[in-house]
Amino acid sequence: MKTKLLLLLLITIFVTQTAISAQENEKPSSVTISYIEHIPPFWFRDSDGELHGIGPDYWRLWGEKMGIEVQFYITTWSDSLDAIRRGDADFHSGMVPSIERKLVFDFANQQTVMTEEYLFVRKDLGAKNPSDLNKIPIWTDGGISEKLLKERFKGLTLISADDYSVINEQIKNKTMTAFVMDEDIAAYNLAKLDAAGRYKKVYSVYKQPLFAAVAKGNDKMLKLIDEGHAKISQQEFSNIYKKYIASKVQYPEWLKRALIIGFIVIILCFFIIYSLLTKYQVNKKTKELREALQNEQKLRVEKERLLVHKSKLAQLGEMINSVTHQWKQPLSTIMMIAENIKDIDIYDKEVDREQIMSDAEKIINQVSFMSKTMDDFSGFTSPSERISDFYICDACNDALRLMEHTISYNKIKTYINCEDKISIRGSKNDFVHIIINLLTNSMDAFLSRGIAGGVISIHINQKDNNTVEVVYSDNAGGLQGISENEIFEPYVSTKYEESGTGIGLYLTRNILRKTFKGAIRAKGIENGLSFYIELKN
Q1: How do residues 456-501 score in pLDDT, each as one tens digit?
Q2: Got the DSSP string for 482-533?
Q3: CATH 3.40.190.10 for the 2-251 domain, yes or no
Q4: Strand 423-426 with 137-140, pairing
């Protein structure tokens, strides 16, 4: 019987202890946490009434780790403490564990955040410590900071605010002179209210960690709080802290806008400066290129002028020789007539006056021929800038007369087929030079290739009202190893290397383009070459 009673007693004790242990280990499905209304960035509501901040985010994460639903009881400071004593809240989010508070509350082992409250003073007051603020009201949250200031500095005017919204409103209205606030909260609020440059920190009131607090003797809740704290890593807490402090304090909305506007202004300034520099460089380069082009054009014009002069000089000896031979016959005739006249007795009544008149007429004709020859030669050597209307046939005949001796000496036959009245506007001297270039080119080819019976023909046609075509042809063997386009390039000669300069046809094309707005092309024919010249009226 005693054995049965003892066994029953042991079973009863075991069941009781198991039930007690299970009850102690059982977690609540939800907890209610109390704290103060509106102390951003730790606790605040958005425009939709949703609760945000470091505190709510931290305790929501704590609830997820523990598998417990978290609810919040947000009120004033004094009511948040009374809610723990009344049982309306399971624990307070965080407070400084003073001696008085430890009589009423038990505190968790791990802190939630570190708080450091400073005395902030308007800069224009010039205060360096709390003693300089006699008779100037100092606003506090009515907590431990107010008590410490009373103990350390006598005579301060301290005013308690139910929450930070009262202080913030005065900061916004620029009526706040001095206040006590947590450093992070103050940085957030001052930045948001665009007042960061208006106040300065003059005194650190206290620096203490905040601990979650439960009603005295609620060890079960303390155990749950510490267990949840242990499950939250430092990195997770840092991410929550940076979410609000980094984005809200360091970069308030006004600063964001200012930075964006500043960035846009910098970019615009950069593009404007870059555009101006680019424009300056382009203008400078354009000016340099324009000057270089002008210099190049001057050099080219001078070069062409020298080439024309060189070409004329090359032909000058030939023409002087031709003029010399053309003058020999007239001079001989004049000499003979002069000798006959010398022997006449002018006092003889039987003098043949008709013969004398005939001889005088012959002298006049010979001198006229010599004068015409000299005019042709002088015209060729004179400047060629004068522009006028002239007959093409006359210009071709002038060129043939200047080259007459060379042509006849080499037994070359020439033919001109044209209408006497076909005229063109330009420099007659330049056109004579063109024909002489072609004649010289043909005669050099005849000589260098040993061709006898050379024939040169010039046909002039009025194609339409605005265009005259001159076709110059020879039978000097045509092009040999040179294309029809290459012969108009400078220093490309159709003659043997020792006799050709390679600039005659190049100058011919340039003179036609510049003076007559014309063109020239070459075409091979049987045993020779034809040049087609088009001139615009």
Answers
A1: 999 999 888 788 999 999 999 888 778 888 888 876 655 533 444 5
A2: --TTGGGSTT--SS-TTT--S-HHHHHHHHHHHHHS-EEEEEEETTEEEEEE
A3: yes
A4: unpaired
